[in-house]
Fold:
Amino acid sequence: MNQTIETILKHVSVRSFTKQTLSERQVRQLVTAAQAASSASFQQAYSIIGVTDPDLLKKIAEEAGHQPFIAEGGHFFVFCADVNRHQQLAEELGMDISKTLEGIDAALLGAIDASLAAQNLVLAAESMGLGVCYIGGVRDGIIKISEWLNLPDYVYPVFGIAVGYPNERNEIKPRIPFEAIYHENQYNVHTKDMIKQYDEAMTLYYAARAGEKRKHTWSESAISSFIRHPRSYMKSFLNGRGWARN
Structure:
């Protein structure tokens, strides 16, 4: 055990922040930490947009699942998959990358690069005593949010991250048991009993958490999230922006 691992294991999502904003120095430190992440073939196929305009923040908070705390924290980052710069460079170099851009892998590459960079930023923020929350809800309002952020073709928002000084923190959530996550040599399909035991632990967690009145399991919560957020428009949205047409 060391300080880095302790920081990782103490992670919780924070949804209540003070009104103290991050300094320009803190923002630069966090983005620099994000840029230190690994990148597939060093493509660096992502961009990060810091949203500081109060009116725009409120609009995004509403469109991204009606989550007002997004506009109340220290800073809001939108992580985007971005191969727009690669397309421009290819044109300047007289090279054709259209087949790659029209396949699914370029869209995956951008999302993976953005995710790796984002996790670096999160760990850096938490090491500074800040709280964070990933906001997948930006994909709920991906059409309007993309327009508001003036995103060109071959760029799309993967998620946002709210960062700030915590007002309060929840207790650390129990995770799925190690044996149900880590499979050695072959995939283990016999994990139902472990998940049932985990559901029991999560029911107790939810019951003990402030503001949680409904008794429910992790399984119910996870599947309900899939049902609530089908985001079936994502394929047509990406196709319209030049991605994954094949």
Q: What stands out?
A: The CA atoms of residues 222 and 228 lie 10 Å apart.
